Amino acid sequence: MENEKPADLLAQRKEKIEVLRSEGINPFPSGFSVPHTVAFVQNEIETLPAEDLPARVYCVAGRMMAINSFGKSAFVRFRDRSGQMQAYIRKDKVGEADYALFKRLDMGDIVGLTGSVFQTKTGEWTLLAEKVVLLCKAVRPLPEKFHGLKDPEKRYRQRYVDLIMNGDVRRIFIARSRIIQAIRQFFLQQEYLEVETPMMQPVAGGAEATPFVTHHNALDMDLYLRIAPELYLKRLVVGGFERVFEINRSFRNEGVSTQHNPEFTMIEFYQAYATYQDLMGLSEALFAFVAEQVLGTTTITYQGATIQLQGPWCRMTLVESLEKIGGVNPELLSDRQGLIDFAATRGVPLTKTGSIGKIITKLFDALVEPHLIQPTFITGYPVEVSPLSRRSEADPSITERFELFIAGFEIANGFSELNDPEDQRGRFEQQVRDRQDGNEEAHQMDEDYIEALEYGMPPTAGEGIGIDRLTMLLTDAASIREVILFPHMKPKSQ
After folding, report:
1. Would 6-142 and 165-325+368-482 be classified into the same CATH topology?
2. 474 within 8 A of 295, measured Cβ to Cβ
3. Cα–Cα distance, 266 to 350 (Å, whole number)
4. Which string of DSSP letters, residue by residue, matches 373-427?
5. What pLDDT, in 10s, does the model give residues 156-173?
6. CA dist list (Å): 42 to 51, 76, 83, 120, 165
7. What is the dihedral of CA 470, 416, 397, 319, to 10 degrees?
8. How many CA atoms lie within 13 A of 402 on its CB side?
9. What are phi and psi of 115, to 5 degrees?
10. Domain spans of the chain?
11. Where does 6-142 sit in CATH, by number?
12. DSSP conformation class of 371
């Protein structure tokens, strides 16, 4: 059996299905009442007196992950959504007909089992089946190695097989679900309103990025998959929803890497009468809350590094970080050509050299960001790279903005919002000029958003947090593909 080719096994499975059908047995029956889960059974085993258990009858269902036959009996390991358990199938217990059908089943088939529990000689609690029902005949055999798939390419393309075979993968996505639930719980407790905003937008806005473009036939107009929900959420603040959040899918037509996927999940939230300083404190509280809810601790290990998520966290300006960590002489920060020359000596490629602000942030990305392992807020971003942020009243060349870095990558971006419509128009106009100069990621003009600001938006602060990256952090996943169920990939080579 071990030497048989997958194509041969597939042919055998298909032949079995045809034989079953010819005998009047449906390999894919409809429905099955499952009142119990493996976890429920195991919990009762732990809590009820041992002498009461043989009288209890359970009905469970799951996928058979291993079959060990002995002629007139067999041990089966099966798994449902809650866990894995062993069952003992005996011919004299289930009857000759059911046992004959069971003997024709394969690993990977889904069955229903009814029976009581007993302890084997090794002390393992096992379901003694009184009835076995075929619920789904698996046409394709599972991978040979019971411990799971190893080829990342196949794991990502066939996530359904990955989930069947790899317990660690299942745990990652269960954790992801719990992370999102904890985030939602935190903001609801803070009196935020959860909202939904358009995923197809007439103007791509909210960040500097290349959008995906689609076309609406009935309206005969191009639309953009949103790169961020920011401008719509701030319209809601204008409308009087003073605390809003959205857990959203956003789309950016950019490269794929260990930290980037064209389709990704964020939470964005906005709070009236708050500043970026307030949101830094809120972020510390949020991350500690989520870690406690999901992991039971705020001290985590990520790729070998111990990280403390309990605040307060380090706060440093962009200029300070470049000097202290990046080794940049502060005198260079006002010398455009000097910065270009410095970047060349450090091997930092520059594709956008139109402004000092863009050069500075590129140097930061290369020389500072990888070294920010413990949670660190970087503040003081230049105006030219922050088109939606409020200017600092102390230094109008920078904005009231922060980015949060943990484990060497950006995980959040927040700022005091620009609510002066004339200032916002001027920023958009500069972005339009940048687009004309070849920067395809520059922000488009959004007249409707400016009109919304003219109705008056209260002083507001907003923030976006990457949920995929947060999940990476809390599950110790090295790649974003490990925390996205179906990551985007190139087509299979023919």
Report:
1. no
2. yes
3. 28
4. -S-EEEE--BGGG-TTBPBPSS-TTBBSEEEEEETTEEEEEEEEBP--HHHHHHH
5. 999 999 999 999 999 999
6. 15, 16, 9, 15, 22
7. -30
8. 26
9. 170, -175
10. 6-142, 165-325+368-482
11. 2.40.50.140
12. G
The secondary structure of 476-493 as a DSSP string is T-SSGGGSSSS---PPPP
Q: How far, in Å, CA of 72 to CA of 214, rounded?
A: 62
- Alpha-carbon span 40 to 47, nearest angstrom: 11
Distance between CA atoms of residues 418 and 457, nearest Å:
9
Low-confidence ranges of the chain (pLDDT < 50): 1-2, 146-147, 494
- Nearest alpha-carbon partner for 237 in 195, 300, 289, 292: 195
Q: Tokens standing for 494? A: 């023919």
Report which DSSP code applies to 346: T
Pairing, β 73-80 against β 58-69: antiparallel
CA distance 128 to 115: 5
Q: What is the pLDDT of residue 403?
A: 98
Cβ atoms < 10 Å from Cβ of 402:
28
CA distance 328 to 16: 70
Contacts of 240 (CB under 8 A, 6+ apart): none
SS3 161: helix
Number of Cβ within 10 Å of residue 230's Cβ equals 23
Q: What does the alpha-carbon distance between residue 83 and residue 85 come to, in Å, rounded to a whole number?
A: 7
CATH class of 165-325+368-482: alpha beta
pTM of the model: 0.92
Q: Which two tokens stand for residue 356?
A: 């000092």
Nearest to 39 by CA among 83, 7, 1: 83
The candidate with the shortest Cα–Cα distance to 445, out of 422, 427, 420, 421, is 427
Q: How many CB atoms lie within 10 A of CB 165?
A: 20
- What does residue 360 show for φ and ψ, rounded to 5 degrees? -60, -45
Token pair recorded at residue 284: 């510390």
Structure tokens at 16: 């079995």
Closest alpha carbon to 288 in 296, 280, 298: 298
Give pLDDT tens digits for 295-325.
Answer: 999 999 999 999 999 999 999 999 999 999 9
Helix (H, G, I), strand (E, B) or coil at 220: coil
Query: How many C-beta atoms lie closer than 10 Å to residue 78's C-beta?
Result: 23
- Alpha carbons 70 and 87: distance in angstroms, whole number: 14
Instruction: Report helix, strand or coil for 351.
Output: coil
Where do we find the tokens 């429905």?
Answer: 31
| Residue 411, token pair as written in the block | 């995980």
> For 45, which DSSP code?
H
- Token pair belonging to 348: 């930092």
DSSP letter at 298 equals S
Residues 6+ apart with CB under 8 A from 271: 192, 242, 243, 278, 279, 282, 460, 461, 462
